[in-house]
Every structure is written in C-alpha cells, then in structure tokens.
Amino acid sequence: MSARTKARKRALDILFQADVRGEELAIMLATEAKRAASEPAREASWLYARDIVDGVIDNRDAIDEQITTFAKDWSLQRMPAVDRALLRIGTWEILYNDDVPTAVAIDEAVELAKEFSTDDSGSFVHGVLARIARSS
Fold first, then answer.
1. Single pTM value for the model
2. Mean pLDDT taken over the chain
3. Rg of the chain over all Cα atoms, to the nearest angstrom
C-alpha cells in the first residue's frame, strides 16, 4: 500500500471521528499530530494526511457546496459519515491538489468506500466525484 493510500486512510479516520464525535476538525487534527510525533515510521503518511485535513478545513464551505450540488437528492446530513468524509477528501484532491490526477483521487475514494462503507457507497462516491471533476 502506498504512503498516499495510507495517508488517505488516516485523513478518513480524522474526518470521520470529528464528524461522529461532533468535535472540531482542528482539535482532532492536533490530537493526531501529537500521536504522529511519536510514530516516526509513519511520517510519510502523516504529512499527506495533514495536508488533506488542512485542505478540507481551509476549503470546507466550497467543498461541501460542490458535494451538495452534485450529490443528486442527497443532503450532507443524510449521507453515511464515511461517505461524507471520503467525498470531502476526493473533492479536495480534485479541486485543490494538482499533484494528484483526478482519476487517482476518484479511484482511491471509491476503493476506501468499498472497504469501509455500505455496498452502494462505491458507486455513490464515484458518481458524485465524477460529476465534480467534469464541472471543474
């Protein structure tokens, strides 16, 4: 598994936990940063995970607007928390990270949705992110 794939999983954990616990994302990120400082072997995945979460924090309103616009008939609150977090990660990568090809951002989000969410989540995440990518 690549360092970026591991980083996306870490970012997913942070976004998901903050969402489910109702905690500020910045606080969850700070907590994870403390833990990461004691795990130098995982530094490569931590650095990109932090970039993702910082990017979501900095662009959250625009990201959520894109998701809401292209998630046909689904409000953010109605989505499973895992899907919501993956859509935020994928949208950030598509719109704000030129280092990641759009197809890679979509594929990675879909694979994580298949692994960690519902049976229908992979196709749902793919559809929303593909529409966002086409519009950008």
1. 0.94
2. 94
3. 14
